[in-house]
Design a protein that fits this description.
This protein is of the alpha/beta class and 465 residues long. The structure holds S-adenosylmethionine (SAM).
Length: 465
């Protein structure tokens, strides 16, 4: 690992000459944007790397610093609490970011302790807190990660959720929800495997949009479940010509399976209009639209946020057909009831099934969010069932396995709607049964996909029709 790049900036701080390593400076910039502006690290990272002119190994170092610091924050905070003479709540947030960054280098990277500590103190220089950062990180450096975990994690036998939360760096409530969801899938003992999978950066997967690209023209290995996917070993997917031309896209295999499950479900009668209710940024829309185009159907995509609707338009640009993108609230879609044949409700959710890709999501969500989210999810599903024609299909999906967003939404809909029927879904994937019979739940540790949940409904045909 390179310590300090050629163009390292030197500046005077705390009366001594300090050298700020641009890679670490860039990492702090990303961490600040994630904390202050609720930014997504994977979106800010490329922008910051470009601005600092960091490529190759330096870019790799920044990526590791940022993603490791965010992912392992729960573990590091438990260690830092044991090393700081003041409660972490009273440490300035920017300084806490630095402490986490230093701790990641000490406990998870092969950075020599003196370099991990001095570069972090240099970053703190201007804040007049270098002494505090130095003292805390020196204490952290006294043990390795395993020794710290033995000291700071409560015993598993007495407090399994709190133990797993510290060891695998997830909020306690998230561990409890994932444990419940796994128990409903017959895998209560798999919690640690799931939490570990959440902390492992996934391989980038691409989708060859049908009719626009062949998967054989894409680099990487074919994905096991989606016949349109490939998994890359590494490299920048933006340099793949089919991706640059919009004929292929970056898309998790689980997300591909969601679009395919709707497109391939058996449907009698008219099949000309498909609707994607929560479309932004448009990955599933692009796959649905290319499948629809191949069958003479068209896609209407709605998205509540204007800027995300723009992203959907961009994703659909290369797909032939008269597809339409509207900025609209999916709980009140601007469409005539009965005019649509297939609907996807890829509902806004906690995103706790996609923590491999969105490491910060676990720290942003609170258990209190679940109630409002599951209410919104039910309303979106109800509106979709209102707008689909009798006999038509609605696929409800979330990238969360949390039961409030899966089992609860589906069971309440089944109870409330006497004009819709849950249609058993079988993707032919082992160990993918969902918490309600006939639904599907994918898992990162079992299937290597995000934890997508799928439930298919058919709007009943009135008996007089
Ligand atoms: C899980 S994301 C959809 C991901 C998308 N299907 C894809 O594959 O790229 C949920 C989306 O729903 C949007 N959304 C939230 N509330 C909505 C509403 N009431 N109506 C329509 N869209 C909504 C969010 O802005 C977000 O873009």
């Amino acid at each position: 690992m390179r310590q300090g790049a050629q163009d390292a900036r030197a500046h005077r701080a705390s009366g001594r000459l300090s050298v700020v390593d641009p890679a670490r400076e860039a990492a702090v910039e990303v961490l600040t944007a994630v904390r202050e502006a609720d930014a997504y690290a994977n979106l800010v990272l490329p922008v910051v790397l470009r601005r600092h002119g960091l490529t190759g190994r330096d870019a790799g170092l920044v990526t590791e610093l940022v993603s490791g610091t965010i992912r392992r924050r729960g573990t590091y905070d438990a260690v830092l609490a044991a090393c700081s003479d003041r409660p972490l709540e009273r440490v300035e947030p920017a300084v806490l970011d630095l402490l986490r960054l230093g701790t990641h280098q000490l406990l998870a990277m092969r950075v020599p302790p003196h370099a991990a500590i001095s570069t972090t103190v240099d970053l703190a220089g201007g804040r007049g807190t270098g002494g505090f950062v130095n003292a805390v990180l020196r204490r952290v450096s006294e043990r390795d990660r395993e020794a710290w975990l033995r000291q700071v994690a409560p015993p598993r036998a007495q407090a399994s959720d709190r133990h797993d939360a510290v060891v695998h760096s997830h909020p306690v409530w998230v561990v409890a929800e994932l444990r419940r969801a796994l128990a409903a899938a017959g895998g209560a003992e798999e919690v640690e495997a799931l939490l570990a999978a959440d902390n492992a950066p996934p391989r980038v997967t691409l989708v060859a949009r049908p009719g626009l690209a062949e998967r054989t023209e894409l680099p990487g290995e074919p994905t096991p479940f989606s016949r349109y996917g490939v998994a890359l070993e590494g490299g920048d997917p933006g340099t793949v010509p089919a991706v640059a031309e919009g004929r292929a896209g970056v898309q998790d295999e689980g997300s591909q399976l969601v679009a395919l499950a709707l497109a391939e479900a058996a449907l009698e009668g008219r099949d000309g209009t498909w609707l994607d209710v929560c479309a932004g940024p448009g990955g599933k829309s692009a796959l649905l639209a290319s499948l629809a185009a191949g069958r003479g159907a068209r896609l209407i995509a709605t998205e509540r946020q204007h800027h995300r609707a723009r992203l959907v338009r961009r994703n659909l640009a290369a797909v032939p057909g008269d597809h339409v993108v509207l900025t609209a609230d999916g709980t009140r879609p601007p469409l005539v009831g009965g005019g649509v044949d297939r609907v996807l409700v890829d509902a806004p959710c906690t995103g706790l099934g996609a923590l491999r890709r969105r490491p910060e999501a676990r720290w942003r969500r609170e258990r209190g969010d679940l109630k409002a989210l599951s209410r919104l999810q039910e309303r979106l599903l109800a509106a979709a069932l209102d707008v689909v024609r009798p006999g038509g299909l609605v696929l409800y999906a979330t990238c969360s396995p949390v039961l409030a967003e899966t089992e609860r939404v589906v069971s309440r809909t089944v109870r409330r709607r006497d004009d819709a029927t849950l249609v058993p879904l079988d993707l032919g994937i082992a160990a993918s049964a969902g918490p309600v019979p006939g639904t599907v739940q994918l898992w990162p540790h079992r299937h290597g996909t995000d934890a997508m949940f799928l439930a298919l409904f058919r709007r009943d045909v009135p008996s007089s029709a």
